[in-house]
Amino acid sequence: MGNNYTIKDIAKRAQVGTTTVSRVLNNHPYVSDEKRQRVLNAMDELNYRQNLGAKWLRSASTGLIGFLTDEVATTPYAVDIIRGAQDAAAENDMVIIVVSVGGDLPEIEEAIEFLLERQVMGIIYAAMYHREVHLPDNITNVPTALANCFSVDASLPSAVPDEETGAYRATKVLLEAGHTRIGFINVIPPSTPAMNGRLRGYQRALSDYGIPFDEQLIGTSDFALHNYNETQRLLNLKNPPTAFFSGTDRTAMATYAALRDAGLRVPEDISVVGFDNQIDVALNLLPNLTTVQLPHYEMGAWAVRKLLSGDNEIIQEKIDCPLVERQSVSVLDSVNIQS
Amino acid sequence: MGNNYTIKDIAKRAQVGTTTVSRVLNNHPYVSDEKRQRVLNAMDELNYRQNLGAKWLRSASTGLIGFLTDEVATTPYAVDIIRGAQDAAAENDMVIIVVSVGGDLPEIEEAIEFLLERQVMGIIYAAMYHREVHLPDNITNVPTALANCFSVDASLPSAVPDEETGAYRATKVLLEAGHTRIGFINVIPPSTPAMNGRLRGYQRALSDYGIPFDEQLIGTSDFALHNYNETQRLLNLKNPPTAFFSGTDRTAMATYAALRDAGLRVPEDISVVGFDNQIDVALNLLPNLTTVQLPHYEMGAWAVRKLLSGDNEIIQEKIDCPLVERQSVSVLDSVNIQS
DNA sequence: ATATAGTATGGTAACGATACCATATGGGAT
DNA sequence: ATCCCATATGGTATCGTTACCATACTATAT
Question: Which chain D positions come under 7 Å from a protein C-beta?
Fold first, then answer.
């Protein structure tokens, strides 16, 4: 069981004042090496543990950061946001309290109240997919930063994925491999930053490489079967694509299936690149999927660092989505030579 | 910004003693309705928020539960353990502090020390895959429960998936559909509770249905390509399986691919069932995968409830893995009729 | 009338740490 | 010799809350 000694006990044992013990605890100057050592020894011998509640009460700093998140079961991999936040917090000796909430305002408001009672020094709000959020007013009681989302009125600093550049990269790797007919099955729902940004990136890459945009090559996908059908539709075009850019790694699964059923091999006959780098999916597709990384970890870390920096500038940070190359892309020329 | 009023301010405004305010705050008896209302009003008007640090200091109860977990990036869906723990904690007005650690003892020990300093009332240790864990001695300083793992010497209560019954169910649904040749590609690494338990469940189901166990029908899989090859090997047997039981949903991805490449349709020509119910995978396979649910949420919730129950009996709770039926299984007879 | 128990209320001492103030010592500069 | 400043040390008030004790008032039982 946990013996609970206090600094008084330590002070007595080390034959010093409590103030000196406190100084040792907080690495303050003006303690002789000799006494410092005596205190350290005493703490060691008694297995002393600070009562952070008392410390916090006196010094009005809890070392707690609230982490609010909406939970959407279909994108479980976004835990990395939490990991990133955690690691960034740990760098500053802080802890994160995670609270999941549904989407409605009163519930979020209550959760914020809950966190404020615990004297959190700041709140991170993280969304499981990139979107706009509307937060209750009581959030302004405490420094706040957003991860994977942004506020309607741009009143809060936020970290979001740079969807456009990511999609640009995904398209570019195909373009560089010589593909000019690139099918793009975009994520839905419509008008989300992901859908819009990825389409812009795709178009910009095309335009940079002098390839005209062909409306026919664009599909959308919400669930697997739909995506399978869209892939088939593109394949049946009179001038079909030689490569696919799949809006998410998950939808790439159905694209792979449709390709297999059409007797097409990836990447020999047709190249594919995804988006998200959802590793359990990307690594279990055969061949492994070349894709673009959603920077979950970085967004979480950025938000916490922003909070703790004390810098109040409200910015939206677009975080890079690097390309992760695996085996699903091959050069168009070599395809012709091989077949 | 957060005004920080104290119960003294409330007391003054409501014209009562601080004790009365405290009583209202904690729902103690012996406060007249009239004064209670005055206090409530005052709190409302001043937007009062308790300082939980002070409360905790005085009453020696923090309402904090430590949640320790090893992080393995490949199984991100185990977040559900955290969700379950969180919800169970919320039922008792507690919060969870999540700390991720690597696997080595000193690091875990340090993390426990970290949690103890924050006066957690208990610690949950959760593993990302079902396994035996070895925990440092300082964990005994505080009530502990394990989720998705168990301790070497069975000295701690734990919740684990009932792998055997789960695998029994997966096999049974195939057996009930008339399949007698069932290929089983088991998870690795060897000698894990998952591998052993699932094999036992498979064998027991076979035996219950009077089907002899055929060593040839067993494969193992570690990564996608390996699993693809194992599937092919089984397909080339002179008496090949008409159904597959895939050790995890992820490996089912490669099995589906191998089946497609062999010109076999799921479920018309061959049935498949998985294990884990990793929804992002199961729902993006075509047809959607029938599988068995790993009870992450329930394990997390069980562990917290066990902690808070105060009941010190050390038990290992095997939690049920229910079958989730989707579209990847069909009756063998109908196969013959159709083809 | 008086004892007794339940209800209602407030004052004050903790909880364990740190902030602040007071004090002491030992050089180096004047 | 005196002053000043950096270093070193400890006592004590204090943070915001609850536990504990003391005190009243009321209603019922004796």
Answer: 7-12, 14-20
Question: B residues 92-111 near A, CB within 8 Å?
Answer: 95-100
CA pair distance A164, A275, nearest whole angstrom: 11
Q: Is the CB of B12 under 7 A from strand C?
A: no
Distance, CA of A337 to C1' of D2, in Å: 98
Between the CA of residue A175 and those of A230, A290, A331, B57, what are the distances in Å? 21, 14, 9, 63
Contact A231, A255 (CB under 8 A): yes
What separation in angstroms does the CA of A20 have from each of A38, A58, A172, B234, B300? 11, 17, 63, 73, 43
CB atoms within 10 A of CB A90: 15
pTM for the model: 0.88
CA A7 and chain centroid, separation: 41
Nearest-angstrom CA–CA distance, A152 and A167:
24
- Which residue, B215, B208, B216, B217, is CA-closest to B245? B217
Beta-carbon separation of A278 and B280 below 8 A: yes
pLDDT at A334: 47
Partners of A257 on chain B (C-beta within 8 Å) are 256, 260, 285-286
Contact between A281 and B280 using a beta-carbon 8 Å cutoff: yes
DSSP annotation string for B125-174: EEEEEEEEE---GGGGGS-EEEEEEEETTS-S-EEEE-HHHHHHHHHHHH
How does the average pLDDT of chain B come out, rounded? 91
How long is the CA A34 to C1' C29 vector, in angstroms? 30
B213 touching A (Cβ < 8 Å): no
> For A143-150, which contacts have Cβ atoms below 8 Å and span 24 or more sequence positions?
A143/A307, A144/A307, A145/A302, A145/A303, A145/A304, A145/A306, A145/A307, A146/A303, A147/A81, A147/A85, A147/A299, A147/A300, A147/A302, A147/A303, A148/A78, A148/A81, A148/A296, A148/A299, A149/A125, A150/A316
pLDDT tens-digit readout, A15-46: 999 999 999 999 998 999 999 999 999 999 99
pLDDT single digits (tens) A76-116: 667 789 889 989 998 887 888 888 887 789 999 999 998 98
Chain B residues whose beta carbon lies within 8 Å of the beta carbon of residue A52? 117-119
| Residue in this structure with the two tokens 């009163």, named with its chain if needed | A106
Residues B63 and B56: beta-carbon distance below 8 Å: yes
Q: How far is the CA of A30 from the C1' of C26 (A)?
A: 14
| CA-closest candidate to residue A256, choices A222, A217, A290, A279 | A290
Q: Does B337 have pLDDT greater than 60?
A: no
Contact A117 B49 (CB under 8 A): yes
Helix A18-25 to helix A33-46 angle (10° resolution) is 90
Radius of gyration of chain A (CA): 27
- pLDDT for B175-210, tens place per residue? 999 999 999 999 888 889 999 999 999 999 999 999
Q: Strand D closer than 7 Å to the CB of A100?
A: no
Angle at B54 between CA B53 and CA B55, to 5 degrees: 90
Report DSSP letters for B36-48, one per residue.
HHHHHHHHHHHT-
Q: How near does any CA of chain A get to the CA of B248, in Å?
A: 11
Q: What's the rounded Cα separation, in Å, for the pair A209 and B233?
A: 45
